[in-house]
From TrEMBL:
This is AzlD domain-containing protein. The keyword Membrane applies. It comes from the Bacteria. Keywords: Membrane, Transmembrane, Transmembrane helix. The chain crosses the membrane at residues 6-27, 39-59, 79-105.
Length: 108
C-alpha cells in the first residue's frame, strides 16, 4: 500500500470521527429547546424508512421504479421480527438470514 493511500484512509477516518464527535462536544454546553429535541427524535425513523424503501425499488432510466422482489420477500420476516421483538439486532439478523435462504433456494 502506498503512503498516499494510507494517509488518505487515515484522513477519511479522522474526518468521519470528527463529524460524529464535534456535534456532541458543541451541544454539551448548549441548552436545546424541547421542540427541537422532539423534532429531531423523528430523524432516525425518517432516515431508516428512506433507506428501507430505496432498497425495495430498482431504478431504470426513463421508466418508473420497479420492485426488487427478493428484497421485498426478505423484508417480510424482518418486519415481523421487528413487530414481535422490537429489537434492531433481531431485525437485522432475520433479514440477513431471510436473504441468505432466498439466495440458497435460487429466488434472489
Amino acid at each position: 500500500m502506498s503512503p498516499y493511500i494510507f494517509v488518505t484512509i487515515l484522513l477519511c477516518g479522522l474526518v468521519t470521527w470528527l463529524s460524529r464527535v464535534i456535534p456532541f462536544a458543541v451541544i454539551k454546553n448548549v441548552t436545546v429547546p424541547r421542540w427541537l429535541i422532539s423534532f429531531l427524535s423523528f430523524v432516525p425513523v425518517a432516515i431508516m424508512t428512506a433507506i428501507f424503501v430505496e432498497s425495495l425499488l430498482t431504478y431504470h432510466a426513463g421508466h418508473w421504479p420497479g420492485v426488487n422482489l427478493p428484497n421485498v420477500y426478505a423484508s417480510l420476516p424482518a418486519i415481523l421480527a421487528g413487530i414481535l421483538t422490537k429489537s434492531l439486532l433481531a431485525v437485522v439478523i432475520t433479514g440477513v438470514v431471510a436473504m441468505a435462504v432466498l439466495r440458497l433456494v435460487g429466488w434472489a
